[in-house]
Amino acid sequence: MKANVFITLKNGVLDPQGKAVEGALGNLGFNGIKGVRQGKFIEIELDKNLKADEAKKTLEDACKKLLANTVVENYRYELVD
Asked: Could you tell me which residues are beta bridge partners of residue 42?
């Protein structure tokens, strides 16, 4: 079983990396882009014997304790078979 974890900055948190990407896209001629927010995408391989509720608990703990800074970031995950 795999999990996809998506981590994004909370609304109102400045995103200098996103602004830099937005500026670079404009400089390269990509028109119509009004904003860019940068985040993280993490693929996690889980033990195939884990039950869905155990996998969710593991992912929840991993996100809260290591993967996301919950003061400034939101996270969500999805289990993929």
From this structure: 5
